[in-house]
Amino acid sequence: MKSYRLKHLQELESEAVFVIREVAAQFERPVMLFSGGKDSIVMSHLARKAFHPAPIPFPLMHIDTGHNFPETLSYRDRWVASLGARLIVRTVQDSINQGRVAEERGPNASRNALQTVTLLDALSEFQFDAAMGGARRDEEKARAKERFFSHRDEFGQWDPKNQRPEIWRLFNGRKRPGEHMRVFPISNWTEMDVWQYVLRENIEMPTLYFTHRRLCVERQGVLLAHSEHLAPRPGEEPREIEVRFRTIGDMTCTGATVSHASALEEIIQEVAASRVTERGGRADDKRSEAAMEDRKREGYF
Amino acid sequence: MPARGYLDMELLRFITSGSVDDGKSTLIGRLLYDSKSIFDDQYEAIRLSSERRGDEQVNLALLTDGLRAEREQGITIDVAYRYFATPRRKFIIADTPGHIQYTRNMVTGASTANLSIILIDARNGVAEQTCRHAFIASLLQIPHVVVCVNKMDLVDYSESVFDEIRACFEDFAAKLDVSDFHYIPISALNGDNVVDRSRRMDWYQGPTLMYLLNNIHISSDQNRIDARFPVQYVIRPQSRQYPDYRGYAGRVAGGVFRPGDHIVVLPSGMTSRIKSIDTFEGPLEEAFPPMSVTLTLEDDIDIGRGDMIVRENNRPEMSQEITMMVCWMNDRPLETGRKYWLKHTTRDARCVVREVHYKVDVNTLHRNETDKTLGRNDIGKITLHASTPLAFDKYSRNRETGSLILIDDATNETVAAGMIA
Lengths: 301, 421
Known about the structure:
Oligomer: heterodimer
Structural class of chain B: alpha+beta
Structural class of chain A: alpha/beta
Number of domains of chain B: 3
Strand order of the largest sheet of chain B: 7-13-10-11-12-9-8
CATH architecture of the largest domain in chain B: 3-Layer(aba) Sandwich
Low-confidence stretches of chain A: none
Number of helices of chain B: 7
Strand order of the largest sheet of chain A: 3-2-1-4-6-5
CATH architecture of the largest domain in chain A: 3-Layer(aba) Sandwich
Order of helices and strands of chain A: HEHEHEHHEEEHEEEEHH
Largest sheet of chain B: 7 strands, antiparallel
Strand content of chain A: 15-25%
Number of strands of chain B: 20
Strand content of chain B: 25-35%
CATH superfamily of the largest domain in chain A: HUPs
Shape of chain B: globular
Shape of chain A: globular
Largest interface: A-B, 70 and 81 residues
Number of strands of chain A: 10
Number of domains of chain A: 2
CATH topology of the largest domain in chain B: Rossmann fold
CATH topology of the largest domain in chain A: Rossmann fold
Radius of gyration of chain B: 24 Å
Mean pLDDT of chain B: 90
Distance between the termini of chain A: 46 Å
C-alpha cells in the first residue's frame, strides 16, 4: 500500500510555508529579517516557495552592524537579487551617528546588543506590524519557550511569563496599534535539519560556512576572526588556521571552528559528530546565564 | 551514517505529562543524554549550575529550565520544546510543567502531539493527576498513549506492583476515547527500559520506550478520507509571465486531492474541478495532509481566505450553531452572551456563547451541571453561535477542521481552545 506520510524535512517545510503564508495573510505590513546567516537564507528560500509563481509579497530587511564579514554582504546582494525580493538595509552606524546608541568600549566591545535599537527604529520607521526571524528553539534555552507568533508591546519587549497559548496551528495575530509580532517560521528546525534541507534543496551557501584559511585570534577559548574591528589584547598573536563558521553574525563575537569540511555532506557529518552547540562559539551568549533572555526582553531578534 | 541517510527520517511529536516528582525531567534528560543530544557545553553549564546550587549530583532537570525566573524559583513556567533524533526519526518533545497552569499548558502541548507519555510513580500508583493527564490526552485525541511506570528501582522492580498499577489505570481508561495504550516499567534514573533493555525486569517482554518511539505506527494518524482544503492565501502574480494565474494556497487538512477532482467551495456552494496542484518544484499528482500546496481550478470563481475547498460528494457540516468541549485558558472566566473573536481553520468570525451545558471535573470525569462557571484551566461543554456559517467536522474525526480558538476582543488574548463535538 502506498504510504501517505511526509518525511521530516517535508513536514518542517510545510509547517514553515504555512506560517509564512499566515503572516502575509494576517498582517498589513510584514517584513522578513535577513542576517545573511544560514537560517535566514533557508527562511527566505521558503518564502519564495510559499508564494510561487508570485514574487515574495514583503521586503527583506538587514540590520547591518557595520562589522559584517565582507563575504556576507556580497552574498546578501546576490541572494536577494536571485529571489527577486526587495531589500532594506538599516545600519547601527547610522544609529550611532544619530546619537540613538553609544558604541561599546573596551577589548570585548561589540555592536551585537546595539542592533536592537536599530531594529526597533526601523520597524517603526516603516510601520512594520510583523517581523519574521530565523530563530530556532533548539538554539538556546530562552528560545525553547518562544512561540511561533510572539507578541511584542509598544516598546518591542517580550514578556515570557505572559505569552499567549498557541494551540494547534491557529495563530492569533491580533494586536493593538503600535504593537507588533515577531514570527519564527523555522522554530521547530534544528541545526541538523537546516543543513539537511540546504543539501536537499541544493541551496548555494556563503563560503564562510566552508573550510578556509583565516587569521584568527584565540580569546577565552573562542577563535575570533582577526579584523580591523577587533582590538587585539596583549599576548594575542593572530594565527592562520583552517576554519569554518557554524553561525554567521558580527565579526567581533562570532567564533570559528577548526574544520576541514569543504562540502555540505562533510558539514552534516561534522554537525552529527559535534559535541558543542553551535552557539557555543558565540561570545554574546556567554556574557551571563540569561544573556539571550535579557536581550530578547529588550526586543532583540 | 551517510549524509543522505538523514533525508529519510520521519517526524514524531510527543508530550510528556507528569510532575517533577514523577521523574519527568530525569526521563527527558535520559532520552536526550542517551540519544547523544546533549552537547558538552550544555552539560558543562548545568554541571556548574548544579554546583552553585549545592546539588549532590549533576541535575539533569536543569537542562529543561529555560528562563531566569524558573531557575531562581525552581519552577517551570511554560511549554518548552526539545528536540532529538535517532537514525530513524526526529522527535519534538512538548515539555509541560506539572503544577501551575497544568491544564492550559498540557492542552497546548497536546494539540499537535502524535503521542503522549504519562508518567506514574511506582510507589504512589495511579494518582489524581494521572487521571487528569489521561483525560486531557483523550480530549485532545492524541492517537497513542504510553504509560511509563517510573521509579521501578524503588519498588524492587516488582512485577506485581507494575501489574496492579496497570490494572488500575486500565479500569479508569475504559471510560476514555483512546484506542492505543502501551505500558512500560522503567527507571529513568538508572536507564532501565528507557533506551536499553533492563536486566532487572526479565518478566517484562515488551519494547523499551525508545524502541516504541522509533517504531510506533503513525502513518494512519491523519485523516485520509475526507478531503478538506482551507484556503489560506490567494496567489495572483499579475505578471507578464503569469497574467491570469489565480492559485489558492493552503495546507491540506484532510483526505487526498488530485487533479480532475470535482470540488465544491464552502460556504458559497460553487462547484468546479481541480486543474492543477502547484508547488515551486512543479505540479503534483496528489496532495495529502499536512502538505502546503497551491490549487488552481478549472473555473474562475470567487474564492478567498477562510473558504474551504472539499470534494463534492463528501461535505463537512455547515452551521452557525456549534457545540463543543472547551478548555478555558484565561483569568477572566467565560461570559455567556458576550462577543468573542473565533478562529477556525483560516476563517475569522465573531461569536456569542449561548450556553454552558456542564463543567467537567478533570480528576473524576464527573459532569457538574450546577456550577457552570468556566474559569482558567476549566473544561466544559458549550454551544456558541457564530456570525457566519462554519464548515467543520467533529474533532474526533479531524483535528484540523474540528478545532477552534476563542479570542478576547478587549485584550486580544487567546482565551479558549474548542473541540467540536
